[in-house]
Design a protein that fits this description.
The termini are far apart. The longest helix has 62 residues, at 188-249. 64% of the residues lie in helices and 7% in strands. It has a two-stranded antiparallel ribbon. Helix 1 (4-25) packs antiparallel against helix 2, helix 1 (4-25) packs across helix 5 and helix 2 (67-87) packs parallel to helix 6 (168-183). The protein is mainly α and 259 residues long.
Length: 259
C-alpha cells in the first residue's frame, strides 16, 4: 500500500486525466438512454460512491480512430505524470531512470507504446459492457469524483486503467515513495537539527550579551578618562590667564630721566 504522498500523486494524476478526457472527447460525445448497474471490483480502492447509474452520454467510435487525438492524449499524459510528481517534490521519476533524461525517455516510451487509442477503447468497451471498474493499484484512491454516467468519465477511467496495467502509475507512486523514504531514512537527523538550532540560538545570545557588556565598559572608560582630561584642560587654561594679567599689572613704571 502506498504512502500518503503517493496516494496524493495518483489522485492528482486522476484529476488531470479527467480533464484531458473531457477536452479530447467533447466533439464526439453522443447521448444514450440506457439504464445500467455498476459492479465495482477493486482491492481496497474507493472509486465511485454509487453502484447504480444511468448512462447519459457515450463516446462515439470515431474518437478511437483519431490518431491526432491519440497524440494529444499521449503528450498531455506525459505532462500530467510529471506534474503529479512535481507536486509532491519529485523532479525525477527515479523508479524508471537514474537521471532526468533517462527517466523522461523511459516515461515517453511507456506512454507512446501503451497509451494508444486501441488500448483505451478496449478498456472503455470492457467498462461499458461489464460495468466493472478493475483497478490494480491496491490502496490508492482513484477517480473518486468521476460519474460513470458520463461518457468522458468512462473514457477517463479507461485511460487510468491503461496507466495502471502498463506500470505508468506504478512508476509515479514508486518514485514518490522512494524519495519520501530517502528523506525519512535517518530519523535522528531531525533531533540533530533541533539540537543544532538550540545550540546556535544559545551561542547567539551569549555573543549579544558580550557585545552589550563591552559597549557598557567602553562608555564607562570614556566617561572616566575623557571627562578627567577635559577638567585638567580647563584648569590649565585658567592658570595661564591669571599669570598673564598679573605680569601686566606689575610692569614697572617708566623711569625716563628729565634734564
Amino acid at each position: 500500500m502506498g504512502g500518503s504522498k503517493s496516494k496524493s500523486a495518483v489522485e492528482s494524476l486522476s484529476k488531470q486525466v479527467t480533464n484531458i478526457a473531457s477536452s479530447v472527447t467533447q466533439d464526439c460525445i453522443v447521448n444514450v438512454t440506457q439504464t445500467q448497474s455498476v459492479s465495482m471490483r477493486n482491492t481496497g480502492l474507493q472509486l465511485w460512491g454509487t453502484s447504480s447509474v444511468k448512462q447519459a452520454t457515450a463516446v462515439s467510435s470515431k474518437c478511437f480512430q483519431d490518431s491526432n487525438k491519440q497524440n494529444i492524449i499521449q503528450n498531455q499524459i506525459f505532462a500530467a505524470v510529471k506534474n503529479a510528481a512535481a507536486a509532491e517534490g519529485v523532479g525525477v521519476l527515479s523508479a524508471i531512470g537514474g537521471s532526468q533524461a533517462a527517466a523522461d525517455t523511459k516515461l515517453a516510451s511507456l506512454i507512446t507504446n501503451n497509451v494508444t487509442m486501441s488500448n483505451i477503447q478496449n478498456e472503455y468497451n470492457s467498462i461499458m459492457q461489464d460495468q466493472v471498474i478493475d483497478a490494480r493499484n491496491s490502496g490508492v484512491q482513484i477517480a473518486h469524483d468521476i460519474d460513470i454516467s458520463q461518457g468522458s468519465s468512462v473514457f477517463a477511467s479507461a485511460i487510468m486503467q491503461v496507466l495502471e496495467k502498463h506500470e505508468i502509475t506504478n512508476a509515479l507512486t514508486a518514485s514518490v515513495d522512494q524519495q519520501t523514504s530517502a528523506k525519512t531514512s535517518n530519523p535522528l537527523d531531525f533531533i540533530a537539527n533541533i539540537v543544532g538550532n538550540v545550540a546556535g540560538a544559545i551561542s547567539d545570545s551569549f555573543i549579544a550579551i558580550g557585545a552589550i557588556v563591552i559597549c557598557v565598559l567602553g562608555a564607562i572608560i570614556y566617561l572616566v578618562i575623557g571627562g578627567g582630561a577635559s577638567v585638567v584642560s580647563d584648569d590649565n587654561e585658567t592658570t595661564d590667564e591669571v599669570p598673564e594679567a598679573t605680569q601686566e599689572e606689575e610692569l614697572p613704571p617708566s623711569t625716563t630721566t628729565r634734564t
